[in-house]
Amino acid sequence: MAKLSILRYPDPRLHTVAKPVTVVDDRIRTLADDMLELMYQADGVGLAATQVDVHERLIVIDTSEGRDDPRVLINPELIARSEEMTFADEGCLSVPAIYDKVQRHAQVTVRALGRDGLPYQFDAEGLLSVCVQHEMDHLMGKVFVEYLSSLKRDRIKTKMLKKTRDEQKS
Ligand code: NI
Question: What is the mean pLDDT of the chain?
Fold first, then answer.
């Protein structure tokens, strides 16, 4: 597979809706491994396939402090969401150096296929819960800045376009 790179907002490809993974084979396992490597390199806690321009329902997450608890979620589904909401700062590898508050369900129960292709489920709260919801949004073509006011979003868009231009010049 060609080396993966992370799409930067406002790249329109970030708005692609991902398709379900039909078979968990070596191609998908390699993709998951490459995405984990990229996520660790970029010091992120989560990465969705959408962000590397692969439009299939696959996300990788590690919210552990030791950076030693990689999770692969294939075709993830939320099977329960708490009524209680949380309002915490989020960032995104596709929107570097931007952090802002987004409202999310405080707890969720997630069901997915693992790297081995077998179904599993877990309850998430705190950062893990936020991260799962953030990454699952990516699979629906949604970036967290879309929860912010249009004024903020436009400022972020301008900033990101300038950053990209500056990097291309240097
Ligand atoms: Ni993100």
Answer: 96
